[in-house]
Amino acid sequence: MLPTYPKLVRDRQNRNMETVHARVRQLSPMIGLIKGHQLFEGRSSAIQREDGKLDETPIHRASGEVTIKREMLVDFNEATVERHLEEMAEQLARGMSEQFQQRMNEVTAETGNVVDGGGKPFSEDTFLDGMEVMEHNFGKDGRWKPPTMIVGPGMAEKVAAAGEMSAAGNKRLKAILERKRDDHRRREAARILVG
Predict the structure, then answer these.
(1) Which region, left, alpha or beta, applies to residue 119 given φ > 0 means left and ψ of -120 to 50 means alpha?
(2) What are the phi and psi torsion angles at 55 (to 5°)?
(3) 3-state secondary structure of 47
(4) At what angle do helices 78-111 and 6-27 cross, to 10 degrees?
(5) Under a CB-based contact definition with an 8 Å cutoff, are residues 63 and 95 in contact?
(6) What share of the chain is helix, strand, coil (3-state, %, to 5)?
(7) Which of 47-51, 168-172, 185-189 has the highest mean pLDDT?
(8) Strand, helix or coil at 57?
(9) Under a CB-based contact definition with an 8 Å cutoff, are residues 99 and 36 in contact?
């Protein structure tokens, strides 16, 4: 049996994982927007909401598999490794994206943050209805922090084609943001500070 070099093996494993994670973020940018942390055990994660409700998030497996065929060592080069890592990243990105979208659908339906256009074409009213049901964040200076929109390719084209908002749409958006800014201030004032 050939000797192994644990430090080299560890370094290569780390490099492979970094490559896969970076590629997953490229293939599925919405996954890249989410801060992650490692859970070493358990089948779910839970957050206790301000109203005392315990919101449990089940953990689902996302994985990638490749079959590595036996071949001459001289033929098993960096390009071969990269091809296998790419294949795994594609599988992971697909699985994680599906889980993310499913969870977002569940949460938005549960909280009532769903706007159904009723089959009508996308319009500024549809957009503003969505802004109305959302909770918004503001900086310490009171400036609005616009939310990130995640839409499919077809919808992205429709949003872009809708163009600039009308004067009436801008007026409605301004009124929505004023109400949401007041809501944000009340939430911040009601927070229980530690210490």
Answers:
(1) left
(2) -100, 105
(3) strand
(4) 50
(5) yes
(6) 55, 5, 40
(7) 168-172
(8) strand
(9) no
Query: How many other CB atoms are there within 10 angstroms of residue 92's CB atom?
Result: 20
Distance of CA 17 to the CA centre of its chain: 19
Residue 93: closest CA among 44, 19, 21, 156: 21
What confidence score (pLDDT) does residue 192 get?
64
CB 145, CB 136: distance < 8 Å: yes
Dist CA 179 CA 169 (whole Å): 16
Q: Give, in degrees to the nearest 5, the angle at Cα 25 between 23 and 29.
A: 135
Amino acid at 106: E
CA within 13 Å, CB half, 168: 3
d(CA 157, CA 169) in angstroms, rounded, equals: 20
d(CA 5, CA 17): 18
pLDDT of 113 above 90: no
Which residues are 57's β-sheet partners? 45
Largest CA distance in the chain: 76
